[in-house]
Amino acid sequence: MRTISLNRPERKNALNDELAWAIVQAIEAAASDDSVWVVALKGAGDAFCSGLDLSGNTPFSALTPQTALIDDLHWVGRFLLSIRKLCDKPVVGGINGAAVGAGLGLAMATDVRLVSRNAKLIAGYTRIGGSPDAGLTITLTEAMGYEKALRFMMENRTVDGAAAVDLGLAGEVVDAADFEARLEEYCQELCQWSPIALRLLKRGLVKALESSDMEQQLRYELANIRRAFASEDAREARQAFSEKRIPVFEGR
Q1: What is the mean pLDDT of residues 51-70?
Q2: Buried-most residue among 69, 141, 177, 250 (CB within 10 A)?
């Protein structure tokens, strides 16, 4: 078993380029290491991942590759590709706290999710004038079905751990005090099975779910969120978000 921990607790594990690419690299390193049978992914401190770090001067620059050498999907697309397609070992998400925006996308990219009773899950894109990324158009629809996924995102809903299980966002809710121990216990339970069997099982299920091309869908997501963030409404949404007021949209 290998545990990967997002380690920016002072920022609620918000994603900047350094952390996001480190997650991708750590997942892919675990995928290529035959001594690793199961991967656990969790957040340090009291949050899983609060989404894109909005503290910088250009907070949405992460959606655009920095150089021609970086894949044009950037990390917002690589989360799902790395966890589902490039890693055929079970990746268990330990959703120990808030999972927001791209942080929710990272959580939903995992194969199995244990969620703390105190966790808060929210897509949040309508609040900042964006559209879903990090694979959420794929994973939320898989988990919840079309209408529930659409309403969850359109209504900007926040759900706790128990509600997340009810909606299909996670498979098990755990009391906060017991969370670390249960995550370890569950991963060790999986390690009792043949790693060959588990890898072939995951490959088969992922293949069956790919009724559409995953990479094409991720590129479509990324094109949409870039277009959304370029709008005047999105600029107003971000300004209102920083000023803690209700945005005034004009549909342009």
Answers
A1: 57
A2: 141
Q: For residues 100 and 3, what is the distance between their CA atoms, to the nearest angstrom?
A: 21
Helix runs in 85-194, H state only: 102-109, 136-144, 146-154, 161-167, 179-190
- Domains along the chain? 2-177+194-241 (3.90.226.10)
pLDDT at position 211 is 63
User: Which strand (E) or helix (H) includes residue 125?
Assistant: none
The one-character DSSP state at 114 is E
Long-range contacts of 60-65 (CB under 8 A, 24+ apart): 60/229, 62/15, 62/16, 62/17, 62/20, 63/133, 63/222, 63/225, 63/226, 63/229, 64/226
Q: Which helix (H) or strand (E) holds 123?
A: none
Tokens 């920016």 appear where? 8
The predicted-structure confidence for 140-191, as pLDDT tens digits, reads as follows 999 999 999 999 999 999 999 999 999 999 999 999 999 999 999 999 999 9
Q: What is the pLDDT of residues 231-243, one digit of tens each?
A: 888 888 888 888 9
CA distance 225 to 187: 35
* Exposed / middle / buried, residue 21 (Cβ in 10 Å: 0-12, 13-18, 19+): middle
Phi, psi of 115 (to 5 degrees): -125, 135
pTM over 0.70: yes
User: Do the Cβ atoms of 109 and 143 come closer than 8 Å?
Assistant: no
